Amino acid sequence: MRHGSEPEHGDPDGGYVEYVTARLPRLRRLAYSLCGDADQADDLVQEAITKLYLHWSRVPRIAHLDAYVRAIVVRTFLDAQRKGWWRVLLPGTLPDVPQPLDPSADDRDLLRAALAKLPPRQRAVLVLRFLHDLPVNECAEILGCTAGTVKSQTSHGLTALRKILGDREFADIGGQR
After folding, report:
1. Any idea where the domains of the chain sit in the sequence?
2. At residue 48, what are phi and psi to the nearest 5 degrees?
3. Whether 108 contacts 176, CB under 8 Å
4. Residue 73 near residue 27 (C-beta atoms within 8 A)
5. Which range has the worst mean pLDDT, 63-67, 84-88, 114-118, 119-123?
6. Helix/strand/coil percent split, the chain, to 5
7. Domain 12-83 and domain 103-165 have a common topology
8. Which range has highest mean pLDDT (82-91, 100-109, 139-148)?
9. Does domain 12-83 have CATH number 1.10.3470?
10. Could you please report the per-residue DSSP string of 146-157?
11. Which of 118, 125, 156 is CA-nearest to residue 139?
């Protein structure tokens, strides 16, 4: 099946389900990279794939469907940052957090915490550029800005991360989760 086309039996929902099922792990990884919380990432993906479903009839006219869907996820994240997340405080104690099985897990947690301190657009740019290895022009398209803005946001974000993290050395964490 080509992206954006209906399956042989002509069921448009079948094409949507097939597409989303194949891309779900990548979409979750992107959302998690942006927000650093598994539950919030699932919410972002759910909202993004709902928006995709509402516009599924446009899919045959979309040249790069994966880029279009990544843009939906990133813009949904940025919209949520502007609006703020409603948080529910649950009574009782929190479960114990399992200890990481490998040393780079600590690095990922530290980097995730540092990214959470950045403004949402800087975080989105750094996640797209370095954790998802997208070129400047594709980041600009996803974020709806110019390549120059992506470059300046990258510079500002890296400077802020250096201030937060100091001179720490990290294991290779680009491609994890």
Report:
1. 12-83, 103-165
2. -65, -45
3. yes
4. yes
5. 84-88
6. 65, 0, 35
7. no
8. 139-148
9. no
10. -HHHHHHHHHHH
11. 125
DSSP class of 63:
S
129-147, pLDDT tens digit by residue? Answer: 988 889 999 999 988 999 9
Distance from C-alpha of 3 to C-alpha of 167, rounded to nearest angstrom? 44
Contact by Cβ (8 Å): 165, 114: yes
pLDDT at 173 over 50: no
CA 125 – CA 119 distance, rounded (Å)? 10
* pLDDT of res. 12: 63
103-165 has which fold?
A: Arc Repressor Mutant, subunit A (1.10.10)
What confidence tens digit (pLDDT) does each residue in 35-86 have?
888 999 999 999 999 999 988 888 888 889 999 999 999 999 988 887 655 5
C-alpha 97/C-alpha 77 separation (Å) is 25
User: What pTM was estimated for this model as a whole?
Assistant: 0.62
Q: What span, in angstroms and rounded, lies between the C-alpha atoms of 30 and 47?
A: 14
Count the Cβ atoms, other than its own, within 10 Å of residue 23.
19
Are 69 and 27 in contact by the 8 Å Cβ rule? The answer is: yes
> Which value, to the nearest 10 degrees, does the dihedral of the CA atoms of residues 58, 60, 62, 66 take?
100
